[in-house]
Amino acid sequence: MKTIWFALTLLFISSVCYGQNDRSIALNSMIATEYQFAKKALQVGSRDAFLEFISDDGILFRPTPVNGKEFLQKQNSRPGFLIWFPSYAFISKSGDLGCTTGPAEFKRNMDSASIWYGNFCTVWQLQKDGKWKFLIDGGISNKKPVNKIKGLEFDDKKIELLDYKNISTSIADKQLIFDVDKKFNSLLENGNILEAYSDVINDETRLLREGEYPIIGTTEIMKYIIGYDGKFEFEFEIIDGKISGAGDFGYVYGSLVVTGSKQPAKFNYIRIWRNDYGKWKIVIELFSPFSE
After folding, report:
1. For residue 183, what is the domain's CATH number?
2. How many independent structural domains does the chain possess?
3. Which of 148, 166, 184 is at the close of a domain?
4. What is the pLDDT of residues 108-119, one digit of tens each?
């Protein structure tokens, strides 16, 4: 009996490790794709690079959410160089949905100084052909970084190891992630901002706010949130989103109106969630100003 139990235990451990290995390989592949995307933008320009890496139903904020592929196909290429790299990434347990974020800058030409700095947030989905395409992309502006930011590393040799045929490309019921987001939005709309954030952040959570460097981790986020507690009112509208095949990772995007200043301010928002041991936590929350 003990022999059978030991054999079953080994089988279980092996299957768990294999799943974790698949996830690691999928994460490596997604990070590599982000670098390929950035490299392509330098070679052919941002417009054509975005067209190559965006999914058919991918969303961009221009200024409202639009089908990015249809929008870009109507635009002309513009001069200049958009430069970026991923500094953080996360992927679902099913290896089919993930996100990247990191610093970006813009130059008129490669020999000149950058004239804009910011941070991006991108959600990626693994396609049936094994390629990654992004579902939504947004960003904020900030000052030139004071400290050097380290980019994520990836292993070239592991890219070809992605066995995409064994990774689920099915999507669970997205109503689950909508319900999580609605509950959180309700707390914010009712003025319970400290309670709302304290329960859904951890040391990896990142807030992206216009004019600010990324606000990372529980301590820094709570310091930031306290400064806004009771001073503003929020009104959210969820537009759409997706959830991973494993149901442990997803995102929602929509619009946000903030009142309490001289005049209401309107934002697009992206909120990316992960399920940690039965509790939903924010991975990245982006508030991008609504501007023409």
Report:
1. 3.10.450.50
2. 2
3. 166
4. 999 999 999 999
Domain containing 60 equals 2-166
Whether 233 and 147 share a structural domain: no
In the chain, the percentage of residues whose pLDDT exceeds 90 is: 80
Which of 49-53, 226-230, 247-251, 271-275 shows the lowest mean pLDDT across its residues? Answer: 226-230
CB 100 within 8 A of CB 138: no
Residue 63 and residue 7 share a domain:
yes
Residue pair 195/226 in contact by the 8 Å Cβ criterion:
no
Residues 82 and 225 placed together within one structural domain of the fold: no
User: pLDDT tens digits for 252-279?
Assistant: 999 999 998 667 899 999 999 999 999 9
Strands 81-84 and 206-209, bridge-based pairing: unpaired
Please state the pTM of the whole predicted model. 0.91
- Alpha-carbon distance of 165 to 284, in angstroms, equals 28
Domain end marker among 131, 166, 201: 166
